[in-house]
Amino acid sequence: MKISETRIPAVKIIEPRVFEDDRGYFFEAYRKSVLAEAGIEDEFIQDNVSKSYRNAIRGLHYQIQNPQAKLVQCLRGSILDVAVDLRQDSPSFGNYVAIKLSDVSKRMLYIPKGFAHGFSVLSDEAIVAYKCSDYYNAERERGVRWDDPIIRINWDVSRPILSEKDRKLPLFSSIKEEDLF
Ligand SMILES: Cc1cn([C@H]2C[C@H](O)[C@@H](COP(=O)(O)OP(=O)(O)O[C@H]3O[C@@H](C)C(=O)[C@@H](O)[C@H]3O)O2)c(=O)[nH]c1=O
Q1: Which of the listed residues 115, 132, 136, 165 should we mutate to test ligand 1's pocket, taking the one with most ligand atoms within 8 A of CB?
Q2: 42 Cα to the center of ligand 1, angstroms
Q3: What is the Å distance from ligand 1's center to 112 Cα?
Q4: Can you list the positions of beta strands (E) in the chain?
Q5: Interatomic CA distance for residues 56 and 49, integer angstroms
Q6: How does it assemble (predicted)?
Q7: Which of 21, 29, 31, 153 has the smallest C-beta neighbourhood within 10 Å, fewest atoms?
Q8: ipTM surpassing 0.95, yes or no?
Q9: Cα separation, 128 vs 73, whole angstroms
C-alpha cells in the first residue's frame, strides 16, 4: 500500500498492492496501521455504497458539527473524485483536488474533515464505496454547487445528471461563515 500527497497535502492517494493470479485479484482495501503511519488516524464508523450512471454528478457534500473524513474507492467503472478545501485558514481554501479512481487502478482517495466531496461518473456505470469517520446526519448536511464559478471544477462529463437537491445547492460565495470550517 503506497500513500502519497496530492497538491493539497491533507488529501491523499492510496494505492493498494494488487496480487493477481489465475483466479482474479486480491488487495487489502483498508489497513489501519499503514494509514496511521501516513497520519490518517480517523476512526471510520460508516460504510456507504452507491451506483451511478455515466454523466451523473453527486455532490458537492459535507457535514457540519460532526464532519466526516472519507476514504473513497471505485469498485466498478471510473469516476473523477473531487475534494474542495473549505478550511478558512488553509492556503488552499476554495481550491480542489480531482483524481480519477477506477476498478483498474484501484487507487483510493482520502479526504479529511473540512472538505466538500463529490464525483462524476466517467464510465457507463460506477459503483463507489466509501468509509466515513462519522454518522450521516441529514440536518447537518451541507453542500456547494457543482458548477460554482469560483471553484470552477472540470468534471469531464457532457450532460450532467444531478439530484434535485444538488441542483439547488448554494454557491461558494454565499456559504455562511458558520457553515465553513
Ligand atoms: C449519504 C446518506 C444518504 N442517505 C439517504 C438519504 C437519501 O434519502 C438517500 C440518497 O442520499 P443523497 O442523495 O444525499 O446521496 P448522495 O448524493 O450519494 O450523497 C453522498 O454524496 C457523496 C458525494 C458524499 O460525499 C456522501 O457523503 C453523500 O453526501 O440516501 C442515508 O440514509 N445515509 C447516508 O449516509
Answers
A1: 136
A2: 20
A3: 17
A4: 2-5, 12-15, 19-21, 24-26, 46-53, 57-63, 70-76, 78-85, 96-102, 108-111, 115-121, 125-132, 141-143
A5: 15
A6: Homodimer.
A7: 21
A8: yes
A9: 6
Amino acid identity for residue 181 in this structure? F
Catalytic, 117? Answer: no
Please state the atom number of ligand 1 nearest to the C-alpha of residue 48: 35
- Residue in the block written with cell 456559504: 175
Question: Catalytic: which of 110, 117, 130, 135?
Answer: 130
Q: Which CATH class is domain 43-179?
A: mainly beta
What residues of the chain score a pLDDT lower than 70?
none
Cα dihedral 179, 129, 52, 115, rounded to 10, equals 20
**The three three-digit cell numbers of residue 103, written as one number:** 476498478
Question: What value does the CA radius of gyration of the chain take, rounded to a whole number of Å?
Answer: 16
